[in-house]
Amino acid sequence: xxxxxxxxxxxxxxxxxxxxxxxxxxxxxxxxxxxxxxxxxxxxxxxxxxxxxxxxxxxxxxxxxxxxxxxxxxxxxxxxxxxxxxxxxxxxxxxxxxxxxxxxxxxxxxxxxxxxxxxxxxxxxxxxxxxxxxxxxxxxxxxxxxxxxxxxxxxxxxxxxxxxxxxxxxxxxxxxxxxxxxxxxxxxxxxxxxxxxxxxxxxxxxxxxxxxxxxxxx
Length: 218
Description:
Elements: E1 18-21, H1 34-38, E2 56-67, E3 70-78, E4 89-90, E5 93-95, H2 102-114, E6 122-126, E7 130-132, E8 137-146, E9 159-166, H3 167-170, E10 176-181, E11 188-194, E12 199-201, H4 202-214
Parallel strand pairs: 2-8
Antiparallel strand pairs: 1-10, 2-3, 2-5, 3-4, 3-9, 6-8, 7-8, 10-11, 11-12
């Protein structure tokens, strides 16, 4: 029986050749608490150098808060009016301004995009940095924890939805899958989380998988 979830109306630009795999990379015995998620996140990740000379250095804020069903993560949906990544689910974030650190940029962008008070998140570390092909960005994911869930809303034309997603919803059976796009040996893996009303994929899903698998690393 197909237990997959609807995934909303996200349009996925799949190539002609691709394959689908459903086994999640985290253990079935994994537990999800704030401590489980951030306990092994390093203060500073080993940098992955930009893979192209004109890469735009960016930072995103992965904000976690304790909810009724366990940890929740802050997500946004990009406006359909955007030129790139329109309608995609993402973390608050953007390019570094001159003189900014990745933490500075992540906190500033979260404040500008959704109204998150920059003093509210407690930064605990960084996930592995990554390069993206379409936007030619070099992204530093900043992991943080809040002591309460604030009221947030879109503040710019870049964002049309702000929502908190429980980790148990991301790890619920029928939600995660991995796809391999292209033909071997040039195929590449992409992660997907199909919720009832949204599909999280691309760089955002990659970072979520990184976060979810840190707790099982030795």
